[in-house]
Amino acid sequence: MAHEQTDQRTETPPAAAPEGDSPEGGSPAADRAARLAVTVFPLLVVAAGALGLAFPSPFTGWAPAVPYLLGIVMFSMGLTLTLPDFTAVAKRPWAVAIGLVAHYVIMPGLGWLIATVLDLPPQLAAGVILVGCAPSGTASNVVTYLARGDVALSVSVATVSTLVAPLVTPPLTLLLADQFLHVDAGAMVTDILKTVLLPVLLGVLVRLAASRYVDKALRVLPWISAATIAVIVLTVVSGSAQLIMDAAALVFVAVILHNGLGLALGYASGKLARLGRPGSKAMAFEVGMQNSGLAASLATAHFSPAAALPAAVFSVWHNISGALVAAWMARSSRRTK
Predict the structure, then answer these.
(1) H or E element at residue 86
(2) Phi, psi of 136 (to 5 degrees)
(3) Which portions of the chain have biased composition (kind: Basic and acidic residues) (predicted)?
(4) Minimal CA–CA distance to 329: which of 271, 284, 269?
(5) Cα–Cα distance between 214 and 79 in angstroms, integer?
């Protein structure tokens, strides 16, 4: 949102970083907290997916709970937002606009292209496209911080991409995925409003009204979001266990291509826009990392558990790849000093 905080937005140790171009002034404690979150979160999601794959039966009836679980994640994200997060958008509207356009052009386009080139089955194709049409992912701010990127820009783009999702995600999905499966864009708008926008706004209001109490819970919120997203993945994987067995290789190829090309093209878009190295790093993660929890929820509700499979795999993979790319970028920054 604003930050898949861990969409925090929920995962927001970057709050410890200064609002300059690079968080290099962040404290060692904040850096350790961010690294721990980025390391543990993928492991937790992998464990949840493995459990759902090995023992699907106990969890196959959990699908109706997915939208409510996503609401918890989004509410947690809203709790992490402060007034400076919003004023930062007004201070750099051009850079934020570039990030927003890049995010909602590159990833949806890549989703459609990959689904077409790989000739994915309709359910999987719609799922890949839906991932591409989702707003920025939850750990994007954290990995931008670890990569020594522009954290303020990352938070701004993630926040705005989430807030406009009800207006952008459904029509994009209709445009690109309707050839594979019927898309009810109107119902999708309603679902995004209920599971994303309203919980985020409620979290913001609670933060404003009870900031003293919320501040004490900030360190716990990333782990609440991580655990909740893990349960979402567990539910999605258990509902698609047999399909995973049949199409695992194809889905992994699609997800790795989607995420990898998104990271690369996001970085390139920052360079073309002359946002500098820190800004280009932020663009890489804001474009290449998606709110796969939202994609999984929408796919489960509007398509099928099979269509949610790409989102479940993406949820695992983009956190792993993001952490690795962030570490490489951080080392490159130190070498160029």
Answers:
(1) helix 83-91
(2) -60, 150
(3) 1-10
(4) 284
(5) 7
What is the end-to-end Cα distance of the chain in Å, rounded? Answer: 31
- Within 10 angstroms of residue 279's Cβ, the number of other Cβ atoms is 26
pLDDT tens-place string over residues 15-43? 433 333 444 444 555 556 666 766 777 78
> Lowest mean pLDDT: which of 4-18, 62-76, 228-242?
4-18
Q: Is the pTM of this model over 0.85?
A: no
Could you give all domains of the chain from N- to C-terminal order, each with its CATH number? Answer: 13-335 (1.20.1530.20)
Q: What's the rounded Cα separation, in Å, for the pair 173 and 192?
A: 13
What span, in angstroms and rounded, lies between the C-alpha atoms of 141 and 302? Answer: 29
Most confident of 55-64, 157-166, 299-308, 322-331: 157-166
CB 73 within 8 A of CB 138: yes
Residues 318 and 285: their CA atoms lie apart, in Å, by 9
Structure token digits, residue 76: 């947690």
Over residues 279-297, the pLDDT tens digits come to 999 999 999 999 988 898 8
Q: Report the amino acid identity of residue 292.
A: S
Q: Say how far apart CA 141 and CA 147 lie, in whole Å.
A: 10
d(CA 233, CA 314): 10
Q: Torsions phi, psi of 290, nearest 5? A: -115, 160
DSSP character string of 180-232: TS---HHHHHHHHIIIIIHHHHHHHHHHHHSHHHHHHHTTTHHHHHHHHHHHH
pLDDT, average across residues 4-17: 40
pLDDT at 13: 43
Region 196-225 average pLDDT: 84
In the block, residue with structure tokens 């492991």: 43
Q: What is the DSSP string of 111-149?
A: HHHHHHHTT--HHHHHHHHHHHHS-B-TTHHHHHHHTT-
